[in-house]
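Q: Sequence in, structure out?
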Amino acid sequence: MILACQNINKAFGTNVILKDASFHIEEKEKAAIVGINGAGKSTLLKIIMKQIPADSGEVILAKDRTIGYLAQHEAVSSGNTIYEELLEVKQDIFELERHIRTLELQMKSQSGGLSFPQQIQIRSVDHQYFFDHINRLLFLHKFSAAKTAFPASASP
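A: Exactly. Output:
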């Protein structure tokens, strides 16, 4: 079990949004929360993410598991595209990659390691994985590459 919700109840005043909502998600299982507007989908997600409390019930997340969550209406004031926000958040990883590449070049010059075409091929594979991963995330959240304004220089 990765996530379990047991008997979740939530009301706003006299308006009952969730009543005895229960489910669990197992490893490798896929799940969707589907319903009409006002059915409580966002409220349930906010309860799971501990952004708002449930009136009653329990949310159980398996040990050593985390949940990634992109709110439907996120307050972003930077003016950046989603892609630019991802690049900013992952800047430490890019710095680490640059450091690794520098060390690779130093090792090559000292020991005759990888040839220049091999280095480019490795770098291209790394970047392609990163961009494919971002595109999958954006697709899951119904964004197209055109809407995210990917800079032309970012393509591998």
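The first strand starts at residue 3 and ends at 12.
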